[in-house]
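Quick review question:
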């Protein structure tokens, strides 16, 4: 009789747990990860650099998919456009407010994101799932713009720059929503897209860890350093929201990887008659060497 691996035993036990226990285990795992990072990373600013670097790696996975596999199926053009938007604004703020290594990483991410947008719009348009990528982005762009007018940093920088900085923080927090909506519509996510979204989840977690650890290390003084009013609280909330938005997908990603599956299948059954989504997955799982 074949002996079951410890990983299989643990994952099987987690699957049998009720939803409340799964949430508790997820929160406990997050706290354990934060404590681990706090102990092993001496300069916590490196967590933010690592987050941006992971984002770049995730975008490189998309570039590989677009150039080698020649398809953009499963990729949300609207998410890429929102990403390019907040990166462009953040890059502007970085140039005029604080030029550092983040500026270089943001430049690399923006250039690669713009290239992905070009490939989807022009070179691989025939494989774009436009009918599934149906999230209305003005529902998030306009509220973020309005919110940034009223709640933004209280530093000594020019007010327009402070509003821009707030806008990119808010927009970044929800820029992945169109991608999640597309994946919800097709129910099955092929490997390269799932790797990219998981990389975004890791990047968001590292960024949140940077702020949370800094908050505890400074015993709350970080909030006053960011300014006064609602702005410091919204910065922290935006970071946490980004992480929780992607946490559910990351769970199913890890579950699929540990189960030896290439494609990530979300809980609901695929949409009846969605031959395009099924064909994408069958093509990847049948011909790719992962």
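Suggested answer, residue by residue:
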């Amino acid at each position: 009789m074949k002996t079951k691996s410890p990983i299989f035993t643990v994952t099987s036990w987690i699957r049998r747990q009720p939803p409340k226990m799964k949430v508790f285990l997820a929160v406990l795992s997050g706290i354990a990860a934060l404590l681990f990072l706090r102990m092993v990373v001496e300069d916590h600013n490196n967590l933010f650099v690592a987050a941006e670097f992971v984002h770049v790696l995730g975008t490189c996975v998309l570039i590989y998919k677009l150039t080698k596999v020649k398809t953009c199926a499963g990729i949300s053009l609207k998410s890429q456009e929102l990403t390019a938007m907040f990166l462009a604004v953040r890059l502007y703020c970085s140039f005029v407010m604080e030029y550092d290594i983040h500026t270089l990483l943001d430049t690399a991410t923006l250039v690669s994101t713009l290239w992905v947008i070009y490939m989807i719009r022009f070179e691989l348009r025939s494989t774009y799932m436009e009918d599934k990528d149906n999230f209305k982005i003005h529902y998030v762009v306009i509220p973020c713009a309005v919110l940034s007018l009223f709640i933004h940093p209280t530093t000594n920088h020019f007010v327009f720059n402070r509003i821009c900085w707030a806008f990119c923080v808010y927009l970044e927090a929800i820029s992945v929503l169109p991608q999640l909506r597309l994946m919800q519509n097709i129910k099955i996510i092929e490997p390269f897209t799932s790797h990219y979204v998981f990389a975004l989840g890791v990047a968001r977690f590292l960024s949140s860890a940077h702020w949370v650890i800094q908050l505890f290390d400074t015993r709350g003084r970080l909030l006053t350093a960011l300014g006064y009013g609602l702005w410091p609280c919204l910065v922290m909330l935006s970071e946490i929201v980004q992480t929780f938005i992607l946490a559910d997908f990351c769970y199913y990603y890890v579950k699929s990887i540990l189960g030896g599956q290439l494609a990530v299948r979300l809980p609901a059954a695929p949409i009846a008659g969605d031959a395009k989504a099924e064909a994408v997955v069958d093509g990847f799982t049948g011909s790719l060497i992962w």
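Why it works: The CA atoms of residues 281 and 287 lie 10 Å apart. The first helix runs from residue 6 to 15.
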